[in-house]
What we know:
The complex is a heterodimer of chains A (115) and B (116).
Chain A: E1 4-7, E2 10-13, E3 19-25, E4 31-37, E5 44-51, E6 54-57, E7 64-66, E8 76-78, E9 87-94, E10 105-106, E11 110-114
Parallel strand pairs in A: 2-11
Antiparallel strand pairs in A: 1-3, 3-8, 4-5, 4-9, 5-6, 7-8, 9-10, 9-11
Chain B: E1 4-7, E2 10-14, E3 19-25, E4 30-38, E5 45-51, E6 56-59, E7 62-67, E8 72-77, E9 86-94, E10 104-106, E11 110-115
Parallel strand pairs in B: 2-11
Antiparallel strand pairs in B: 1-3, 3-8, 4-5, 4-9, 6-7, 7-8, 9-10, 9-11
Amino acid sequence: DAEIxxxxxxxxxxxxxxxxxxxxxxxxxNNMFWYRQDLGHGLRLIHYSYGVQDTNKxxxxxxxxxxxxxxxxxxxxxxxxASSQTSVYFCASSPxxxxxxxxxxxxxxxxxxxx
Amino acid sequence: KNQVEQxxxxxxxxxxxxxxxxxxxxxxxxxxxxxxKQDTGRGPVSLTIMTFSENTKSNGRYTATLxxxxxxxxxxxxxxxxxxxxxxxxxxxREISSGSARQLTFGSGTQLTVLP
Lengths: 115, 116
């Protein structure tokens, strides 16, 4: 069955270290997204991609970067981790680009703690 | 400012009881509204979607309503089960021509606990 996976599921790192979170989907979806989820906040968009070599900034993109070298993967990199980036990170994918009712399919999440 | 407010923040009910979760939004222009269920430690999963012309839509024991005039939606759960314990998230899509992920505004969710 097609799915979307994230790794690692849990990560503890130190301030200033570079961290990469992996996201892999087997639906062949063009669109992929990264969100963070913090207590008291809705999911907030970090970066998104509409296809290979396409990346776009979301509302909370500072300190994060992504790259899209193939359809299946959208890794999220924290260049220099900060305590404010302690959060749960969700990757999602969807099949269409614009408008409509396209549903996003979410991965299981990665809990990141920055000490 | 485009906002989605959900109430209550948390709710505890006994198994078998009904409950209603609320979602108020200021997103404009409105395209659609989706309810997601998020189990603990999992990603959100879509329950239903409401478009402008739809007032009521059911998915098993879940019934969503939409009043586009007052910009309110509700999710009613009938005969609750222990497995209904989860966070329920309301997401509103704004209608813009360019088509962007920035169209979506997420509510912070209602945490529902169903006790035996």
